[in-house]
Fold these 3 entries.
Entry 1:
Amino acid sequence: MSRSIRRIAINTGGGDAPGLNAVIRSAVLAADGRGWDVLGIRRGYAGLLDTSKIVQLDSDAVRGITHLGGTILGTTNKGDPFEFPVTLPGQPTTLIDRSDEVVENFHRLGIDALIAIGGDGSMRIASAFAAKGIPVVGVPKTIDNDLTGTVATFGFDTAVTVATEAIDRLHSTAEAHERVMVVEVMGRYAGWIALHSGVAGTADVILIPEIPFAMEHVCEKITDREARGRRFSIVVVAEGAAPEGGTMTIKGEEVGREVLLGGIGELVAAEIQRRTGKETRTVVLGHIQRGGQPTTFDRLLALRFGAAAVRLIDEGRFNNMVALDPPVVRAVPLEVATSRMKCVPVDSDTMLTARDLGISFGDGG
């Protein structure tokens, strides 16, 4: 099949995640070894709307980037060509469909296949372009680990490692001052980061989107620890967590992108202090979880994904996403990968372990 491939393109979309550069390097080197030309599309699909943003990628262009955070191609979570935001002077921002321009420029540039690297939103866009005739192979990237069909996405392990290290550091200051520390972590609508970092960091309370919480149960855990002489507590809160009968806390909304979550940590901390009288502080890790060097696991997974994506192109297996199914990397149809969000199963082994360790999820369990 490789004889029909002469030129491929790569883009990175959505939020950045450690490991993006490793995927780019792996895919470029694998393609170069097959004699293919590789183009880099800057800032998601922007390079196919303004082709001056297209860059040539070869072995020199990707030398020494495996360990680097971010992405040499740039990324955006505001550039969906199917709902592209346009603002005219004196008028509100509107969304227009520019997908046909992308398809036209894709073919005009003589590109035979696209490797689309991104999270759930990027995979949905890739699947929509596949339906318009662009041969696509997806690579799952998200620190949230919420993509169906793959056991893990690269970026997740790094985010959990960063969060766990922060929780470790907060233990000593919380104990020294006999405070409650509330740590807000990313994850949007899934609680994977909060769960894994909270368990690994020996948190006392973990609040995740999958389990609505009640403040009386959260405070009960803290007062129980106080009665046993443990005069500090660590509470890990996923940004998408919500109280029973309540909704997620939203910082704002922007046209052409999802709502901005955040602020639940402050609300939980204020309520803990009001109810228990314990001095309570909040730490929001935010984009620290996205930046910096990828862990060894994420580097290796990203390199495996990049090479696997090229192999799928070589075999003509388009409209699939590469996915980790230990011990192998396999292909999952894009339609399946975007069919639903992968949330934390409340009866999973990690959840059961957390409850056996005495961690509260604010549900009285």
Entry 2:
Amino acid sequence: MPNELILICSVVFIYGAAILGYLIFGKTGLYCISVIATILANIEVTIMINAFGMEQTLGNILFAVTFLITDILSECEGKKAAQTAVYAGIFSSIFFLVLSQSWMLYTPSSADTMMPSIKTVFSNTPRMILASLVVYAISQMFDVWLYHKWWKFTEKKFGNKRKFLWLRNNGSTLISQILNTALFTAFAFLGTYDIPTLISIFLSSYVIYIFTSLLDTPFVYLARKIHDKKLSKETAKA
């Protein structure tokens, strides 16, 4: 199966899982998806592929869904809920970093066949996780802050709190992703790859983020519709 098709299917699956989690479990479902995506992205980002004519790391889509989740939480559950998702991601990254490194302290038995593979995969994760931890905290908090700044602007400018969701969604995410991509590329790969490769990683990552950011807008609208429906049911019962 072509890499391009796998990436497209991944976007649909991951974004769909976030919406399904919100539909079934509410904001708790989004917290769970955010934590899982943060941990898996730190592993997946070590893989390099070629897709759409660009050399790129995996993990971009998993990182992108965390921005979708904070936007949904900001829109439907409030700024505090969005910040909680960010704090949960930071905590889970620290927990995973400590735990994954402890695995390599064990002395494997003579019958073990997995330890060499574990060391190959997870010997690179400390730098990746530390880089993503710092970048995640900075870019996500900035994204939440910027989302609400855009919200105040659209409400004041157009006199309606609900209109122009697409503007605050894309206005916050596209700008935040520049910061996210630049910082992560520098922290995670500087010294590992040459400058042309770093530039290629940055450009390809941001192109992917543009695509995923624009694609996530319908999912934010769908999440708000789910929230409104739940709210109207609760109001009818009261």
Entry 3:
Amino acid sequence: MHSKKIYSLVLISFIVSKLFVMNAQVPSARLGLFDTFTNIGSPATPGTASYSEPSQVYTLSGSGSNIWFGNDSFSFLWKRMNGDFILQTRIAFAGEGHEPHRKAGIMLRTSTDPGSPTISCTVHGDGLTSLQYRTKQGEDMQEVKFSISGPDVLQLEKKGNSYIMSVAHFGEIYQSAKIENIDLGNDVLAGLFICSHNNDYVETATFKNTRIFNIAPDDLVQYKSYIGSVLEEMDIATGTRIALGSYEGSWQAPNWTPDGKSLIYNSEGKLYYFDLNTKTSKIINTDFADNNNNDHVLTFDGTQIGISHHPQETNGQSVVYTLPVTGGIPKRVTENSPSYLHGWSPDSKFLIYTAERNGDFDIYKISRDGGKEIRLTTAKGLDDGSEYSPDGKYIYFCSTRTGTMQVWRMDADGKNQIQLTFDEYNDWFPHVSPDNKWLVFVSFPKEVPADKHPFYERVYIRLMPIGGGEPRVIAYLYGGQGTMNVPSWSPDSKKIAFISNGIY
């Protein structure tokens, strides 16, 4: 719902696009996001690491006696990092294993010395899960144990001298623990580790959905400064995420085209095609409309696109336009502003949008040819993010009318407005799957004001049945504004596309 001003577009590589598997058995062998693989403390059987494309999966194998007393012995895939960041992954041990205390996870260290100060997000083979840490060289480890057993989603966040470990069984909300006042120095070695806990054996673990997010500084000015974007797709059935590309500035709000071949996103006020085969972008000609926000929506047949542009003649307030998806001169639809587009009717005859009129934000409907707008919601509070179901019977939207931002549904004429979500999270931008079975939406923590959806928050993407029910988490990410503002399902209802933030 807002204009975005970002730095000049520089497309950079995030993941090598060719199909390959990289292996490392010696130090200084770059694998995926990481620079170096090291066997620390001379494990009896030197470990190995590999990274596979296009799955973007890391596999670590290694022996090692332990990571607890003052002399660690294990295998470590890492890169040198500084500042504040989040490292997250999804882990799975291979097989039953030989030792209940085999362990793997995420680690930060001062050095590769076996007795280095260390903080690790650790999961053991028997399910024991703990935040383990050593504050001084050569000391025994300390730990904070979790009640959860055997989580597969792991996250470790560094913010100054504070460290937050968050873990979950995939689909569930994080459990977290925090330790403070631990100084590992300006630079740390950050990465993934494996330890068999028994030097007679080698254990193996795989790590997928591995991401490193740079954290926005506290003084960052939103909509003026950006810390990078990652364009991702995710398989709904497996939860596997693939990073498609990245940018140092801000990419936002990918639409999936009905032919399944491209994504459309906005950046610097312009719209771009992202070819899913070549992983390259090209600009869409929107003529005078060069100050577009992230409210761009395709018709169900994919022939037209609606945009929200901020023209000078409205003092920069958003106006809804339409144009062919191949590009052209936009046609103005809404006379009044601000108006922020969110949906098309399945027959392409009407558009629905959020508009501020007389100090209230409500959802309106208008003919594709313009004319009189029809008000669909009247409740006090912000109503936003409206989208038609594929059969045209319902409109799904989000509303703060009960105090928090929740998902709602109404008939296509605005009648019978009912609430679908009821928890403490602020749920934004419900999107209906093309098969009309599922809703996905972005969930902000309760600490974020209900009527705000800023960048650079620790958010979930959640999934729920179309008729309501208990939402489950399908993505854990650093994002928010621009992550999934527009319809972003693949045409076969098997995947979604979204933006996460903070390239490191």
